[in-house]
Amino acid sequence: MVEEVKHSVMFIANKFPDTRGIYVCGHSAGGQLAAMLLTVDWTQYDLLQNIIKGLLLVSGVFDLQPIVKTYVNEPLNLDEAEAIRLSPLCHIKEACLHSKHCKVIVSVGEHDSPSFRTQSREYAKLLKDVGFDIKFKEVEDKDHYNVVHDLVYDNYSLTQDFLKLVNSR
């Protein structure tokens, strides 16, 4: 799926060559997929390195290693090595090398599970420590589902943060 998301970005960039950049939002497993875009060297695909301008990562799964020995892994069938390969937390150096220009919002619901809250905080801290323009936001009174559901509302604080990110260019 990481390859499919990467190919989606390549398709959009090639279909709209005059674009000034692409902004991506991902929730839960989608947050992991979006975060992995930071590790891509876009120049090897004849795209500008800064094609991804910003990410909104909502309650993302940034470390897949804890799920390897759980029922969640049954359909995925990940081994330890693949979990590491697909975990954004394990690829901060690559993200720094390829995407330090990208602005990132990492958010999580106040009532999300401890694992999602811990991984979100840790990922945001690691990105900040290597110099990313990062905003971490724990959204009050939200859980894993309604933290993303409410993005449809103009007055929702996370929607406003994402619109500011997009308009900041």
UniProtKB/TrEMBL annotation:
Superkingdom to which the source organism belongs: Eukaryota
InterPro entries recorded: AB_hydrolase_3 (IPR013094), AB_hydrolase_fold (IPR029058), GDXG_lipolytic_enzyme (IPR050300)
Domain Alpha/beta hydrolase fold-3: 18-144
Presence of the UniProt keyword Coiled coil in the record: no
UniProt entry keywords in alphabetical sequence: Hydrolase
Protein name, entry field: Kynurenine formamidase-like
Source organism phylogeny: Eukaryota, Metazoa, Hemichordata, Enteropneusta, Harrimaniidae
